[in-house]
Design goal:
The complex is a heterodimer of chains A (264) and B (317).
Chain A (H helix, E strand, L loop, with lengths): L1 E10 L7 E11 L4 E5 L6 H9 L6 E6 L2 E2 L5 H4 L3 E4 L13 H9 L12 H12 L18 H14 L4 E5 L7 H17 L3 E5 L3 H6 L3 E6 L2 E6 L1 H5 L3 H12 L13
Parallel strand pairs in A: 3-8, 3-9, 6-7, 7-8
Antiparallel strand pairs in A: 1-2, 1-4, 4-5, 9-10
Helix pairs in contact in A: 5-6
Chain B lengths: L1 H24 L6 H18 L4 H26 L3 H19 L5 E3 L6 H8 L5 H23 L3 H11 L1 H6 L4 H27 L1 E3 L6 H15 L5 H25 L10 H48 L1
Antiparallel strand pairs in B: 1-2
Helix pairs in contact in B: 1-6, 1-9, 1-10, 1-11, 2-3, 2-4, 2-9, 3-4, 3-9, 5-6, 6-11, 7-9, 10-11, 10-12
The chains are: A alpha/beta (264), B mainly alpha (317).
Chain lengths: 264, 317
Amino acid sequence: MLKIEAMSKVFYPNTVNEKRAIEYIDLTVKEGDFVTVVGSNGSGKSTLFNLIAGTYPVTGGKITLNAKDVTNTPEHKRAFTIGRIFQDPTIGTAAKMSLEDNLITAYRKGMKGLKISLNSEKREFFKKELTQLSMGLEERLKDNVGLLSGGQRQALTLLMTVLSRPQMLLLDEHTAALDPRNAQIVMDLTTKFIERYHLTTLMVTHNMQHAIDFGNRLIMMDEGEIILDFNQEEKRSLTVLKLVEMFKTIKKKDYASDEGLLIL
Amino acid sequence: MLEGIFVDGLIFSIMVVGVLISYRILNFADLTCDGSFATGAAIATMAILKGVSLSGALALATLGGAVAGAITATIHNRLKVPGLLAGILTMTMLYSVNIRILGGRANVPLLRVTTVYTKFPQFFAFVSKSWALLLGTFIIALIVKVVVDLFFRTDLGISIGALGSNEQMIISMGIDPRLLKVIGMALSNGLIALSGGLLAQYQGFADANLGQGMVVQGLAAIMIGEFLFDSNKITLITLRVILGAIIYKALMFFGRYYGYHINLTPSDLKLLTGILVIVSLIIAQTRSAASTADARKKALKKNVERRRQKEAKDAKN
């Protein structure tokens, strides 16, 4: 599904601000995999996602998506395969437009034509889809999305993303900005949709328990490299404490503060 | 006299709808408009003088504006400069282009030729001349409004609206935002040029300086419209823009007509327009501040009430 070979990313190369965000990454994700990604702030998780999604070009290496070389493919073209959800609930939806307008934009990927697709049949369909979020949004199709709460917006973003039928999901701490209850709701919906649509998923999280509980593979990043990679078997026997212990051993130094790494 | 204000306002409203598309829908601070308005006037005038049909002349004017808008969007897209700078560049270049179109002159009269405004009285012979002009302009403005309303209900139109609200979302949906910007800006400046083409025929000449200050006037009209009512429906948004345009023109008319009593000259109107925009912004801000303060007052009142109830309860116990 996704193959990353010898990828690296340097920001502001050959200047005093030079920053090697991704040192060297080899990663193969099989179809149907659900990979959780952990690592402290600045370890390169978000950069990894930005490179996979195509937000900025790689410095070196190659990215293959569905056996197609997409290293130089622009972000909006990769978006046909990749659905991405950000930590900030406002990034995935258009605040100044109604729910139904947002949904119709997400209904089909790609350039739109001069057809008026938003009819009563579509509205019924959207209502049915919104019902499964159990947030009462099915009654608010004409409301502007800016009126919704963060949790509602993130749930809507999730629904819009899966409606557009991607094959792969990139979840960038997508529940981190929500309160525990809403985070739980959005996480439950996420796993439901992943199973139903057989989505290959990469999920960044700072919640170690989530990282262990969800998915069939766990990778840990540090200083732009993948330092740990557990498959389903190894993951089963993991605990949060073991994970932290391993991180420390590899780093050969005690972190004075684990705050950047952990929310237990 | 009053019909004149409405004709003026309706022609102007087509331009304001164009400004609405760039400023409010696309969220693109576009200054091309000052140039493309005159481009529309110049193209329509020269086409009519060269014997092109009236509808052909207006179509050419619209097309000319659309090209100007597309150029601004392309400069912004390719060179990654802010829309404001891209617009200023195109606007400045258009000044020279417009004089070229006008055959090296800054002002070309449209005298003793057939224009839409000499046609209207023949066409609507059943009403007086001034009402015929109004009726004709009204129909053109109505057509523009309906077409724009329809466009922004199509999938393409909705995605342009979404782009103005959140560009990342459009990228995530697999759409090239650059293409949408070109389309949106072409539409916006096409309408602006159409308005310029109509105005040239109404006033009987095209001038290279016709577009000066159009952006601010357009913004003033949009803001006046926004005071009228609040809506997220495109049909109501365009309606309030048209009403705002007519009100603006009426204000300016009375400023010119009665202004001399307070020693106001026509050259002061730009200052007044600017002040009008600033006042609109201040009112909009105080309004939102007032609603926040109101909400806070209500919340405090509720708290006091709650405490009282609690105390009463405690006292009972």
